[in-house]
Amino acid sequence: MFPTFTGTSRRPRNVNLSGQRNTNPWASSNWSPSASGASKTVAQAQAERERRRKERDELNAAKRLQRVWRGYRERQSFKKVCREEYDALYSQPIDGHSPSRVISALRLLLVLFDPSQADDQRRLDLFIEDLGRLGSTPSNFDLFSPNSWDRLARLIVGALERRPASSSQALLSILVDVVKRRPVSVTPVLNRYYKLLSKYYEQTGHENVSAEEQDILTKAATAPLISPPNQEMSSLRAYKAFAFSFLTSSKLLSLERNPTQIAGSVNLQSLSQSVIDAYSGREHSSTLSKNGSLSLLAHFIALNKAAPTPQGTKYLEALYLQLSILVDDIRIRYDRHGMLGEVNKNDEDASEEGDANTDDSVPLSPWVLSQLDFLVDEDGISELLSRFTSTAHSSNRLSEDASLLAGYTLVLLRCFPSHNDDIKMRLFQGDITTVDSAGSTSMPSVKYFWKAASNTSIFKSITQSRTQQQPPSVVTLLQPDPVRDREWRTLLLFLELYNFLLRITDDEDFLPAEVQVLSEQSPTTVRIRSSGLSLAELKQLISFLKSLSFPLYYNLPDIMPSASKPTRLNSLMGISSGKSSTQEEDAKAAQSSFAGIIGMDVLGLRSASTTTMRSLYERDSRRRFLPTDFWLMTSKFDMDGFISAVVLEEQQKEQMAEDGDASDDSDGDELDTFHTFTGQRLSRAAQIERRRRVRRVQREQLLAQVGPKLEILRNMPFVIPFEVRVQIFRQFVYLDKTKRRGGHVDPDRWRLSVLSGEGSFNGPTARARDILHRHTARIKRGQVFDDAYEQFYPLGDGLKEPIQITFVDQFDQPEAGIDGGGVTKEFLISVTDEAFKPGSEGHNLFTTNSQNLLYPNPTAFDDLAETLRYCKVAENDDRWRESMADLAKRYEFLGRVVGKCMYESILIDKAFAGFFLLKWSASGQGSLNDYRANLNDLRDLDPELYQGLINLKNYAGEVIDLSLDFTITDEVRGPNGEVRTITRPLCKNGEEIPVTNTNRPLYISYVTKYRLVAQPYRQTRAFLKGLGSIINPAWLSMFNQSELQRLVGGDSSEIDVEDLRRNTQYSGLYAVGDDGIEHPTVQMFWQVMREFKDSERRQVLKYVTSTPRAPLLGFSQLSPHFSIRDGGTDEERLPSTSTCVNLLKLPRYSSKETLKSKLLYAIQSGAGFDLS
Predict the structure, then answer these.
(1) DSSP letter string over 311-366?
(2) Which helix (H) or strand (E) holds 227?
(3) Which of 200, 596, 632, 816 could pair with 485 as two cysteines, CB 3.0-4.6 Å apart?
(4) Bridging pattern class, strands 1122-1126 and 1143-1146
(5) What are phi and psi of 956, to 5 degrees?
(6) Nearest alpha carbon to residue 411 among 323, 317, 499, 315
(7) β-bridge mates for residue 977, sequence order
């Protein structure tokens, strides 16, 4: 057969030019390396070429070595000759006033000197002695050329680096003289020069140096800073070296003791400018440790504090930059010193390997702390405001000046969170001077920032957007821009200050009547009233806040686009320890900035805006000053489908949460190595702080992406009508019931599903019986709360499921009746009646004010502790911990019971204090800490204390004469009824701080915060924990304090008899027949109800349903429905009720007068309860 397709058997010629041999001519070519043929020749040529190159390199290297060695040998030989000449020169006597030897010696010295050689150091001393004999007159400086003097100065710097401070005074004196006359002489070695000086300052700081030596050191530090004409750049270079090579030392003790010496010779404007340039250009800061940065900051503050004249805005700008970079470290390390008992709280975090964390573990020195304290104390803030003068010739200039002060103050608030109130109070009390064409005027700081904020283009754009065809997008206004950043800073600080003002302003001073005479008021009252806004300004501010906050919730994915990136849900929702993103993304997020403030983000702006808006809304809810519909923003939504859309978002949110892996989300995970923008590695504590910030941002982004309407309802509920929110709340509860009960909302159907779902062919299993058994209780009247607590506390959130109650008498015999839902209602109402009973008659868990409004007993834990001490129980004893835990559990259980009533739409006749209800709402916005104590809330807690604080605020005399200090007294009751007084400080060293006219607003704020937040904190936290286990806290945040009261206890408006009649059911003889006509007795009953006053109608309603208020959405929501049944023919008998099923048993009276008199007698005398 032919081997090819050509038809010939002749093998074609195969020419292989590669030098490889292939035994198979039909195989594919193989180009693997071979040691034969042409490839071998090529390889050998390459090897030969490489060998020759190496030989050339070795020869060139040998030549270079020889050349270097010859040069070195020649130089050493020449130096040796010079040393011999130098020694010979000084071996001959010479006239001490002749400059000839000095001139010859300097020429030789500049050549021969080696600072590491002791003999050369001795030769230098001989030269300095000669030079010293000649004196330091200006004519003697003509002996040498300027270049020679410069070289001599640098030579002396090198020599001093090898010497201790004790043997260097003469040398340093000559150096100072040279540098004073020629500051540029040390320009090439400025950093070495100032590091040398810092070493000398450290060495002499612990010694008793003479005034002359101290003067030399001072002159040495300031000599290079003298600015020759037309050499500003050289001067700035000197100031940079002064700042980053000298002031960064932590042991400049003589400077710390007396900064005035240097401050008087330093141009602090140039120093500020050098710091600004260095940090803005990220020079030096990448290699500067955190301790070095803190030392620079402390010395910078000290020098400016010692300056005789104000330094202007450059000082503020430089201070702002330094604080911005150090904000996390200052906050963490400063708080360790400032918080009592927490100095060593985070010591374990400081033990991480590596040098990067040593800065964080070293405590701040007392001197650094004192300088930082100056920034936040009264003198520091007063000096800041006295130095700051706004040259407000135009609105633009006003905005620029306000922005600079605002940026600095905002960073100050972030650095010192424990001093926030102090900073705001002192800034609030200050006046800011403005200079314009009409002259200089002073105005309160709050008013100044309101004027600046309301004049910004951002404020005008947002408030005027309603009248524009194409309103500017908030997304656009939030984009980085230098001009807008300044405006945002001004707006942020105004909101912070106005929030503080709202907290210390009572309702009388919020919008005072014009007829009141201000001259009769105290300076504090005058300050508060002069800082407040008029009604027109309030409307303008609230419109701005609504228009700003709404898109920050509803359009957050557009504002922070990173939310749209797909990420693992478990990390975003904060329920898993998995990595949320790459290390680079985390670091980038952690370093986010807003308005030019490092670490600030849009969420911070949103929080400040929402807090101010909610504070104004709560005040308007308490004492209305705005039209009813002013807060609504229904035009933003399609209200026809709003409820269904919100319910869908809630379902999606729950589904996404279920999809996440439920695992631990602690901060002990492996931490990424975050760096600041200056390149410094963050400490562990700062990493944890920034990790939390990243997770918070990611969580808020996801919530806004999944449920924008839910976010509006949670944070801005007042923009939606109350009735709509109630319907949404009921829908949420119904959905939760459906989900938890497997679709069986009816209690009996749920019990049947448990039995059938957990059962088998042989009947219910032990697990099914156990589930139903845990939801069943035997309750003895008279100890309802205790029995309920013992049997139902272990259920936890399982209390949401239907429970079955059997009441038993004193002999433990069950009462007649079947719990079809009515007994459960009677049980829950009985539990609340018993638990909320104040004083010795109840459980001492709650107490009431003069208006019978309930709130947690603030001394409950103190009273228990006093009892335990009386019983000789130590605080470290297990019985102590168990008793305290049991009391907290009782509060938690009571919260669950209230939540169960709301969950089952059972109204309870209990009225809670407004400040306590505000904490319910705040728990849904984040935590109990989100509740802001307000002076007006104190009125509900303690009217006498409230009036006393108002009198103190209005006191026109000297408050210090009242002998008050920053402490507060609590009265604690022991087991025998004796009362003991405990004095507690309101702040650190409070017993040493007298209350004065100046700090009186802060004292009022501290007292208010203690009474409303700190003292009842454990009780409130436990109660809200229980309430939140039944009712989602986010649902509670949809309502204000008065709305929550209506949700719990019903509508306080006038009883609608016709609505009640439409939703009443009849049974027995009173059942309506086919003709649709009511029984005559029933018709008389409704005639009597119409004739009753509203108070009497409420008595009837409470007699039948146990609560005098109607359900929020009308009597159609009453469960069970209002019912009337035939009560017999005996007209002497009074009407009776079964409140557990809302049933009125009405005898068949023959006349309306008889029915009315019997009904009135029954409701006013509290006729007996009859269980059907």
Answers:
(1) -THHHHHHHHHHHHHHHHHHHHHHHHHHSTT-TTTTGGGGG-SSGGGHHHHSPPPH
(2) none
(3) 596
(4) parallel
(5) -90, -15
(6) 323
(7) none
Instruction: Enumerate residues 6+ apart whose C-beta is below 8 A from 818.
Output: none
**pLDDT per residue as tens digits for the range 173-200:** 888 888 888 888 888 888 889 898 888 8
Structure token pair of residue 464: 């005027």
Considering only 637-646, 807-816, 990-999, which range has the smallest mean pLDDT? 807-816
Rounded (5°) CA angle 475-481-485: 90
| Average pLDDT of the chain to the nearest whole number | 80
Most confident of 362-366, 572-576, 857-861, 921-925: 857-861
CA atoms within 13 A on the CB side of 818: 2
* pLDDT at position 925 over 90: no
Return the amino acid letter for 206.
H
Distance, in Å, from the CA atom of 931 to the CA atom of 927, rounded to the nearest integer, reads: 8
DSSP state letters, 1060-1074: HHHTEEEEGGG---T
- So what's the pLDDT on residue 15? 65
Residue type, 547: S
CA dihedral over 335, 341, 342, 348, signed as positive or negative: positive
> pLDDT: is 593 or 901 the higher one?
901
- In the chain, what are the helix, strand and coil shares in percent, each to the nearest 5? 65, 5, 30
Task: Give 325 or 383, the one with higher predicted confidence.
Answer: 325
Helices 684-706 and 602-622: crossing angle in degrees, nearest 10, is 70
Inter-residue contact 960 to 996 (CB < 8 Å): yes
State how far the alpha carbon of 193 is from the alpha carbons of 146, 181, 185, 549, 1007, in Å: 19, 16, 11, 55, 54
Residue 1101: partners with Cβ closer than 8 Å, 6 or more residues away: 1055, 1060, 1107, 1108, 1109, 1110
Q: Is the pLDDT confidence value at 633 over 80?
A: yes
Read off the pLDDT of residues 504-514 as tens digits, 9 standing for 90 and up. 888 888 887 65
Entry pTM: 0.76
Among candidate residues 82, 415, 901, 1140, the one labeled active-site is 1140
The reply to whether 1140 belongs to the active site is yes
The position carrying tokens 């989602």 is: 1032
Cα separation, 197 vs 180, in Å, equals 15
Return the number of other C-beta atoms located less than 10 Å from residue 454's C-beta.
Answer: 19
Q: Judge contact between 647 and 731, C-beta under 8 A.
A: yes
Question: Across 663-672, 889-898, 1160-1169, which has the greatest mean pLDDT?
Answer: 889-898
